[in-house]
Amino acid sequence: MRGPYLKPDDLDIGEAREDGTLVYAADGLTPFEAEQPAWKPSIHMPRWASRILLEITDVRVERLQNISGDQAEAEGVDAAMCQQYLETSPSRFECKEAVIHGFAGLWQSTGGNWDANPRVWVVEFKQVKP
Length: 130
Known about the structure:
The protein is α+β, with helices and mostly antiparallel strands and 130 residues long. The chain has helices at residues 69-74, 83-88, 95-109; strands spanning 11-13, 17-18, 39-40, 52-63, 119-128. It has one domain. Helices cover 21% and strands 22% of the residues. The protein is extended.
């Protein structure tokens, strides 16, 4: 597999913004004097304007189904999202197993095939001050 050739300073998080100014959509503001908001996609934000910088701490390849409950939670799935599954499961999965099951559902909802158990890049990072 070809690797994601990243250095620790390669991840900055762009935000939607109004062109010509530094009005950030995440702040809940709207572009000035515009009939319709003219937000530019975050991918077009200049690096100097980024308020969030991530430092890559680890990069490795793993099989998708080897994800841990903690990793699934880091991807945004939590036990509350899996409550319906916990209530209907005949085996009453433990909380972390339910989170992994919730991640499997999320993976499939984006067009992925959980059963194929592909190799995936795991990129771990921490937020640092820009």
